[in-house]
Specification:
By secondary structure, the chain is mainly alpha-helical. 83% of the residues lie in helices and 0% in strands. Helix 3 (41-68) runs antiparallel to helix 5. It is globular, with a radius of gyration of 19 Å. It starts with a helix and ends in a 5-residue tail after the last helix.
């Protein structure tokens, strides 16, 4: 979407569709994050399967395809302007954040939290 805006080749319908899809993904992510904070184990699995797997694929598929077409990383950085470098840095940072979140969601501390959260939701007598 950023590429379409930068090149000025985006139509209103194309932008609206892309924006609508992203808003739906963000709304679902917020819903799952709230449920995750409440200790719902299914939210952890849902986040891992949806945003962890598909989100990671969406971040890496375009650069991998670009490399498979025979392009060079060295040439990319040599010819990149500031906006391209900023976008590349944000993509790498996003990927690191997703991978870090995936690792932290299934760390021993998180496992203990989810196992303890299940017991604390039971009604007290």
């Amino acid at each position: 979407m950023a590429d379409l805006l930068a090149k000025g080749s985006a139509s209103l319908a194309g932008l609206a569709g892309g924006l609508g899809f992203r808003l739906a993904v963000f709304a679902a992510a917020i819903f799952l994050a709230v449920r995750l904070r409440q200790g719902r184990g299914w939210a952890r699995v849902a986040l891992a399967l949806t945003l962890g797997i598909f989100g990671t694929l969406s971040l890496v598929i375009e650069p991998v395809r670009w490399l498979m077409e025979g392009n060079s990383i060295i040439e990319f950085f040599a010819g990149a302007d500031a906006m391209t470098l900023a976008f590349t840095f944000s993509r790498v940072l996003h990927l690191v954040a997703v991978l870090g979140a995936m690792a932290l969601m299934f760390s021993p501390g998180a496992n203990a939290y989810f196992h303890g959260a299940g017991r604390s939701r039971r009604p007290r007598r």
